[in-house]
Write a structure and sequence with these properties.
heterodimer, A: 185 residues, mainly alpha, B: 287 residues, 11 helices, 70% helix
Chain lengths: 185, 287
């Protein structure tokens, strides 16, 4: 969504506009879900995080100011904090094998199934897990959440150049360690 | 940051091949990563409906969110105004009172000064009237007047400089009147006490009768007794009550037959005047 359009929708939602609310939910819920799923590994947890993020948005919309990375950065910062809380409470960062299977099962039921084999998913999880924390976070925010480098910088409280460096190194790391098999389109 | 990282950023923006083998392989890696992470999202109609309804509810609460703070601010101002209306000079809310006074919502200092002076004058007059009646209230009224004058003095520093001498003179005059009335009241009270005590000596016949007997003294005749009214009982001066005393003495007293003295003074008086006078004759007596 364009920045201007996004501002308009957010303002409308803050004033109680149903259509604007529906648009925001439809735009960002899938991205929040993907980001949470990539970090937590559990579809159920990811769903919870996405829903809870919108609940927080609802209660904090009055206090939102269009600074830093804007609405998207604010939204994913909320999600990121919720995920961190879950890490702390459950003391887990990477999914178990059962959770990966659960994830696979969930994906198989999707209409547009572009999932990989279980083995490839595990490899991907392993590669992401083995990355330094900041590199992993940059990749998830960029390619799971779909944020640009400015928004990613705002969430991670770094400058854009630092984010570009982290992104470059993270991609190099993954490519050098285990080239990802080609995806069947 | 190197140019490579910028170039990668540009290439990623469109996921386009650049012709640079290294960059292209990174773009390809990013592309595949994106595809893998781009899982479909389960429908979430309940969460969606909740969010939309929650947003819609904000419309209703929008007005109340404006009204509530306004009401709270108004209530706070009213509380400050009510407390500030009676603030005295030197108190933290006194400026509020000045503002209210200038707006006609509270009494100005000069008005307050006049009120206090009026109260004080009224109280002094009442004290005077009570004194003239011989009432005990005169002292009470005079003290109240002094308190009112004290409050008037507090207002002095806040009235116009040119008006101060006038108010000061009034305060001083009323203070003097009040003080005089208090002093007179105290003096009179002392007199009353004296009179009462002397009266009691007179009535305390029984003792006196016998007492005098002890002393055996007829001489003190009379009188003597109480220098003072207070000592009377002991002095035995059955004295004054002569009449009555004698009765007792006749009967009661073993010793002495004191009835004797009688002397005269007998005044046994109750009233003040006699009380005070009685001291005169009293002396000399015993022994």
């Amino acid at each position: 969504m364009e920045d201007k359009g996004l501002k308009r929708e957010v303002r409308s939602a803050a004033r109680g506009d149903r259509q604007a609310a529906a648009l925001l939910f439809d735009t960002y819920h899938p991205r929040l879900y993907r980001y949470a799923l990539a970090k937590l590994g559990s579809p159920a947890d990811a769903d919870d995080v996405a829903s809870e993020t919108f609940a927080r948005v609802l209660s904090k919309l009055d206090g939102f100011r269009w600074t830093g990375g804007g609405f998207e950065a604010w939204l994913f910062k909320i999600a990121s904090n919720l995920i961190t809380d879950r890490y702390r409470s459950a003391a887990r960062e990477r999914p178990t094998d059962d959770q990966v299977e659960e994830q696979e099962t969930a994906m198989e039921h999707l209409p547009e199934d572009r999932t990989l084999h279980l083995e490839s998913s595990r490899e991907l999880d392993q590669m992401l897990h083995d990355l330094p924390d900041e590199q992993r976070e940059v990749l998830l925010l960029r390619f799971a959440a779909g944020l640009d480098t400015h928004e990613t910088a705002a969430i991670m409280k770094k400058n854009v150049n630092a984010i570009r460096q982290l992104q470059f190194r993270a991609l190099e790391n993954i490519r050098s360690r285990n080239p990802i098999p080609a995806v069947s389109q | 940051m190197t140019n490579r990282e910028k170039e990668l950023e540009r290439a990623l923006a469109g996921f386009e091949q650049t012709g640079d083998e290294e960059l292209d392989s990174l773009v390809d890696t990013a592309d595949q990563l994106t595809r893998r992470l781009a899982v479909g999202t389960p429908a979430h109609p309940q969460g969606r409906a909740l969010f939309i309804e929650g947003v819609a509810a904000r419309k209703r609460s929008f007005m109340s969110s404006l009204v509530a703070p306004a009401m709270a601010a108004t209530a706070l101002l009213m509380v400050i105004a009510v407390i500030g209306r009676s603030a005295l000079p030197g108190e933290s809310l006194y400026p509020v009172r000045k503002v209210l006074g200038s707006a006609g919502l509270a009494t100005a200092s000069s008005d307050d000064m006049k009120d206090q002076l009026q109260d004080a004058e009224l109280l002094v007059n009442r004290a005077q009237a009570a004194f003239d009646r011989g009432s005990d209230d005169s002292e009470r009224f005079a003290v109240a007047a002094l308190m009112s004058l004290g409050r008037a003095e507090n207002c002095l520093k806040d009235v116009e400089f040119s008006e101060r001498p006038f108010y000061e003179a009034q305060i001083t005059t009323l203070q003097e009147r009040a003080v005089v009335l208090i002093r007179l009241g105290v003096t009179i009270d002392a007199g009353v006490d004296q009179g009462r005590s002397s009266g009691s000596s007179g009535s305390g016949d029984d003792n006196s009768g016998s007492g005098s007997g002890n002393s055996g003294s007829d001489d003190n005749s009379g009188s003597g007794s109480d220098d003072s009214g207070s000592g009377s009982d002991d002095s035995g001066s059955g004295s004054d009550n002569s009449g009555s005393g004698s009765d007792d003495s006749g009967s009661g007293s073993d010793d002495s037959g004191s009835g004797s003295d009688s002397s005269g003074s007998g005044s046994g008086s109750d009233d003040r005047v006699s009380g005070s006078d009685s001291s005169g004759p009293g002396s000399g007596s015993d022994d």
